[in-house]
Amino acid sequence: MSPFRRVLSTSLLAGVCTLLFGGLHAQSFRTISATRLARNEQSLRVRVEFAAGMLSLSPGDSRMLYQGEIYYDEDSFDASIDYDPDSRVLYFGLDNRDGEFRLGRFEEPQRLDLELNPRIPIRLVMELGAVEAEIELGGMTISDLDLSTGAAETSLSFSEPNRGECRSLDLTVAAAEFHAKKLANSRCETINFEGGVGNITLDFSGDWTDATTMDAEIRLGLGQLTLRLPRNLGVALEVDRVLASFDRAGFRKRGSRYVSEGYESASKKLTVYIKAVLGDIDIDWVGR
Amino acid sequence: MSMPMSRTSASIAILASATLLAGTSAEANDHARQTPTVVAHSADVSAREATLRITLVDGESVTVSFSRGEIVLNGRTIAAYTPGETLEHEWRELLAGADQVGPNEILHAVRDWSRENLSGRAAEAISEELDLVRPRPAPPRRPSAQRIDLSGLDVLEGLDALEELEGLEALEALKALDVDALRDEINAQLNAERASAAESALAEAHDREASESAGPSIASQITNDFAGLLAAFVAMCSLGFGLVFFASRQLEVVADTVRHAFWRSFLVGLLAQPLVIPVFALLMLGLAITVIGLLIVPFAALAFAAAALLGVLGGYLAVARSIGEAYLRRRMSLGHPVGGWLSYRYLVYGLVALSTIWLPPVFLGWAPVAGEIFTMSAVLLSWIIATAGFGATILSRAGIRGTFAGQFDQALSDEYLYHTPPATPIAREQHSRDQT
Predict the structure, then answer these.
(1) B136-172 tens-digit pLDDT
(2) Strand, coil or helix: what is A93?
(3) Which positions in chain B touch A275 (Cβ < 8 Å)?
(4) Nearest chain B Cα to A121, which residue?
(5) Closest CA to B424 of B187, B212, B259, B186
(6) Which residues of B touch A194 (CB under 8 A)?
(7) Is B190 on the interface with A (CB under 8 A)?
(8) Spatial separation of the C-alpha atoms in residues B282 and B287, rounded to whole Å
């Protein structure tokens, strides 16, 4: 074996060993938590940045402004919780220490649990990395939501109607499995979704009592998109696609758009604009 | 705007009057108000320490920490403990549930815990500190029916109601006024107005961003990008034809240099890039310190910029020529006819090849994530090529020095031209070396 090959094979072996066993060093876990009482706050801005682990966000006790906890590996990550009472900005964050990213498995999953006041209008911004997230915003007062995920498995749900008016829902998903349930309950005027690679479900069911119209713009890369649409809804789809399949069951072509049966007479209308490439767009009609 | 301001002034005046009337009752609450109220708490539990921080309404805080065998209260060591023993375990257990309870509950819990588990100076110190803190009272009750109820009214409506009263009735109303409620109501409405203004500004900004970010359709975007690529191709062809016409030999030399020493050219280009600005600065400085030089500074600056630009673009075109030449020579060696005007043909074929780098971003650039990857790849490849071309321009002294070619590879040399003199300057150079 030539010296070059010997060096190369030794380096490869060392690399493989590092990948396999590098993550098995003893981890030191730390817990930080914070709770604050609500005090006549008229609005709240919340920013959550979570690099890796499991995340849970849900409505909490209305007497509290927020209650939350981060459990993390302090050798590899930095976490912080910060609230500024003057600007009413809350920050929950977990990031890789010094920008490093360590390969290997965690003995225990890191986690972030956060409960927010359901009655105070909240502008929520979330940036998630390699995260398994359960986000329940039903019954809260969300005025804006900006959610972006990396390689994440995310479930976003509005199990109950939003208490206030929501301007927009901006969802950006890179390579992930993403399921949004009962989006009608968000009572958002517009929904913007941008997806890279992944399995995406956008469920537009929920309470359409107040929300008579909703606009959604969906940009999809190499993913499978399933739209769950209530049958009693007037839906118009405008699809701009390249090498992407589109299941048009339940729609008929009207000009440049596809419209559902009874679209013109429907009192609740959803307009969806889709740009897609190399993906599948499936339609799943729900309800009677 | 002036109307609400005058109303606000009026409200402040009324508030001041009312405060005077209500002075006695306010004094009664002074003691309670001076005692700080707890509003928040946070816990930090790690292998080394377990810390609880109770935050008060005035922004101050009380911190109790178990760290490395010391119990620390507000940064001051008040007692010692043995790490790993029952006391520390119990403290950690208390903090483990801290996120499940409110600040008032944690205040009581710590107070009770310190009384039960600590003794002597430590217990006293913590009790003293916590006794100065009081739990946050329940939300203020609504004004009673006998008092003027402003809770449901807009502040301006409330002031209108007060203005309609006269004489004794007005004084009675002022006396009955719940000052705290009025103040709370004004603060609440002020905050609501501010929040509303901020929300409106944010909404406008958001709408603006949305309208700006709403891009054209895929087809029009692709058409625009493709037209841009075509325009760039035509521009590079024009420049390249000019170079072939006026400096054919120099372009050939640079192209040969790239072909025979690509990575050396790349490294030279890489090293030269950060030196461009310092060399320019030194040149300007050198000229500026002499009287005659000072006069030609503007021309020298323009000439330097033109030379640098020509170095990069010329190098890029030389790479294109080299690629085109390699392709066409292979075709020629296989006996395919390639036509005349070879120098121009080399360049056009090479530029077509280099333009294909930009086809993925042009056609798929709008796709999320993948588009960015394609664009970044095209930028990176183009930069590598331009850097190598720039380095080759330097190595060959802009094509004047025809001797730099590294190891000459005859594999692609002219099988069909073996009867004729070598086609390129470097081949000629190599040929003459072989002859000698």
Answers:
(1) 554 544 443 344 555 555 555 566 565 555 555 566 6
(2) strand
(3) 218, 366
(4) B195
(5) B259
(6) 368
(7) no
(8) 8
